[in-house]
Amino acid sequence: MHQDVQEILFTEEAVDARIREIGAEIARDYEGQDLLVIGILKGASLFMAELVKRIDMLVEIDFMAVSSYGKSSESSGVVRILKDLDKSIEGRHVLIVEDIIDSGLTLSYLKNLLEQRKAASVKVVSLLDKPERRKAEITADYLGFSVPDHFIVGYGLDYAERYRNLPYVGVLKPEVYQP
Ligand SMILES: O=P(O)(O)OC[C@H]1O[C@H](OP(=O)(O)OP(=O)(O)O)[C@H](O)[C@@H]1O
Ligand code: HPA
Ligand SMILES: [Mg+2]
Predict the structure, then answer these.
(1) Domain count, the chain
(2) Is the CB of 169 under 6 A from ligand 2?
(3) Residue 48's domain is classified under what CATH number?
(4) Is the ipTM of this complex over 0.85?
(5) Which pLDDT band, with edges at 50, 70 and 90, does 67 fall under?
(6) From the CA of 24, how far away is ligand 1's center (Å)?
(7) Phosphoribosyltransferase domain spans which residues (predicted)?
(8) What atom of ligand 2 comes closest to residue 150's alpha carbon?
(9) Which CA distances in Å does 12 have to 51, 84, 101, 144?
(10) Range of the domain at 122
């Protein structure tokens, strides 16, 4: 375990097992349909890569990059689009892939945006959910795990761009972000 991590919440094996279950559920629900899976960079990148391998049907993938946190550990509530989708999503079934729903501000903004673009349906899959901190009313259609109100790192989640490549989901020691 990395020295800045206080506790491992979900090991690589536990995350992998849960992703296989979610992937199977998604494949069942979208059977015979055309699905566009949209990963939200950068946090969702590791989860996205593992998840699409476990959806046993052909899907199209695309990415958006948005930022609301920057270097801070609190959401600013202002969502900036840094990279948009490559193509129109009009009439298509889309699945947004997130690493974590915290305040919910990022996702509610994104979901509204994709609905306005006339997608046939917009659903959300998130690896993690931190329900205690919700400011916008939003839930995941598919969820990996709920987490307590601590700062989480690993498996794509960062603090100041570090810790994303830890292969597990853990709690960052508070002294790292509150010196
Ligand atoms: O529910 P919220 O309070 O809006 O927080 C969740 C969002 O914040 C993080 O992204 P961030 O903006 O830090 O960018 P990153 O994915 O590049 O780390 C995370 O990846 C989610 O997208
Ligand atoms: O707990 C978190 N960790 C990392 N990034 C985040 N973005 C929202 N919440 C978190
Ligand atoms: Mg982040």
Answers:
(1) 1
(2) no
(3) 3.40.50.2020
(4) yes
(5) confident
(6) 26
(7) 10-159
(8) 1
(9) 13, 30, 20, 13
(10) 5-177
